[in-house]
Amino acid sequence: MPATDYQGSSASFGRSILSLRRDQVHSMEATHEASGHELELEAFQRNVTERFVDLFSVGSDDLLSLSWIRKLLDCFLGCQEEFRVILLNNRSHVCKPPVDRLIHDFFERCVKALDLCNAIRDGIEQIREWKKLIEIVLCALGNQKMLGEGQFRRAKKALVDLAISMLDERESTAAMAQRNRSFGRQNAASSRDQHHRNFGHFRSLSWSVSRSWSAARQLQAIGNNLAAPKANEIVATNGIAVTVYTMNSILLFVMWALVAAIPCQDRGLQVHFSIPRHFQWAAAMLSLHERVLEESRKRDRKNACGLLREIYLVDKCTKSLAELADSIQYPLTEEREAEVRLRVQELGRVCEVINEGLDPLERQIREVFHRIVHSRTEGLEALGRVNHND
């Protein structure tokens, strides 16, 4: 059942969150004699909820933007650090069955997430290649006092290369030919060749991702056998099973959202999120999941190579500029020139946002990668030491 069915509307979602927070306050007051362990686990659930409510609360123009993706990664890093501390503070529980098996399963999912981090960094590099083509267009049409046929010819070539490079790899060769029809058969052929060279470069950027590797299959592997703990498991693990399940769900959602937003090899969104509604954070996470799926179903996003908002804006601006360039007759009228310069300014603003956001995003992806590695190593060493002593 979609999250919107559960909420009824965004307004009722807001009321449910307010009610949730009031319940949390009463819960904390009622458990003033609770153990530090119980308070720590409850605080983790509360913090996860607040982070995902914050992610959900953005408007449609901010969802899946570079700034939102960075906020998503901040959410993951914060949750991961709290989870790491909980494991360290509860070694006596963590290193005994059945918790040790749950922790091992989580770390196996983390290994798959590392591959996805590498693939996402490849996608960021691909966006950088697109930015170079955008800069050619901006240089040709944005920095010239007089716009002539030579400038438009150079800009058109870059726009064709960009349009083909941004095609989802599942689109057909016929779609490529359709996009290039107005530029002639020779230009179309050379642009397809350039696309294949760019795509080959894209595939070779990551040493850990082979040609047969699939982001969609990797996500499915992370989600396989991910089930909410039963009552007896919660009791047997002193509540830690709930914390591990929560972190598993966060890992799956964050990696899924990254694959949805950023170009990567064999993208796919067909991951089933089956989260029981009684978890505090479930409504916000499932609502975000539904919103991202709604974006992917939009007519102008269906064949996109990534749902990142800046990718959508680049595609929209460059298509508009290419159509305008195709209709140009020389010499330009003042009205046409003003329209061209306006479209170039719009593209320039998007390019500036990409330029400012891409490097920080890559640094965050790198930090997520290293944090996962460090936490996994630390956890496995702790488990190994306890088992050895036993």
TrEMBL record:
Any one annotated GO CC term: membrane
Domain of life: Eukaryota
Record's bilayer topology term: Single-pass membrane protein
Keyword Ion transport found: no
Keywords: Membrane, Transmembrane, Transmembrane helix
Keyword Membrane listed: yes
Cellular location(s): Membrane
Family designation: Belongs to the ROH1 family.
PANTHER family reported in the protein's UniProt record: BPS1-LIKE PROTEIN (PTHR31509)
Listed name of the protein: R3H domain-containing protein
